[in-house]
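Sample entry (274 residues):
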Amino acid sequence: MGTLPRNLVITVFAALALVLSFRMEAMAENAPSNVVKDLAPTGKLRVAINFGNPVLAQKDPATGDARGVSGDLARELARRLGVAVEFVAFETAGKVTDALPSGVWDICFLAIDPVRAAGIDFTPPYVVIEGTYLVPQDSALRTIEDVDRAGVRVAVGKGSAYDLYLTRALKQAKLERYPTSAAALDAFLKDRLEAAGGVKQPIVAFAKAHPEVRVIPGRFMAIEQAMGTPKGRDAGLQYLRAYIEEMKASGFVAKALQASGQPDAAVAPAAAIK
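Predicted structure, serialized as C-alpha cells:
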C-alpha cells in the first residue's frame, strides 16, 4: 500500500481536527442527561405556546408554526437538549394552566403568578410587559385608581395573568370574564362595559382602531413573563434558570423581540441564580 501524499495527510488531519472541535463544542453546550430527561421525558421538547399573547408568540400564517420570542427560545433550548421541538398551541394562558394535569407539555411561557406557582416552577422573567385599562372616550375614569369603584365592570380574558392579579387587587369593581382576551375587548365595546383590562400592546392597538375608546395612562401591574415547567423537575428547572439568564445577557431575547415587531416589550433585568 503506497504512502499518502503529505498535503493530503495534512488536509485529512485538519478536517478531523475541525470535526473534533465542532463535536467538543457541541458536547460542551449540550445539557446533562438528567436535564434532558426532566425537560424532554418523551424524547422531544413539548412546548405550550399561548397564541393569545401576540407580544410573545405569533402564529405563522403559512405554516402555523410559533414565531416570536417564545418560539425562538423554545427552538434554541431544544437544540441544546439535542431533541426535536413540538409546539402545543393554546389560545389563552388560562388553558395552558388548565392543561397542566394532562401532562401534554414540558415547558411553558407564562406570566409568573402565585396561583400558577402551585403547580408550575418558574424561571426568572425574561420579558416584562404592562397591564393597563381601556375605557370609553367620554368616561369619567381618568386614572388607574379610578377604576376600582362600585358599579365599574372590567372585561378581562379568563385565566390571564391580569385576571388573576385583578381578582386579588380590585375591591369594588367587578370583573367580567370572557374566553379570550380578544373576546373581552369585543364584549367591552359591544356591551358598553366601563373598562377592559389587558396587556398594553393589544390594548393600545385596539384603541387606535376604535377612536371611541382610550387607554388610561400608567399601568395596574407589571407582567413578568417567564419559562415554566411542571413541579418536580428540579434539574430541568435549574438548567432553565441559567438558560434564561444567558439569553437575556447575550442579547438573544432583545433581538427576538425586535425581529418579531415587539420593540416596546422590555427585557427583564438580570436575576441572581440560586
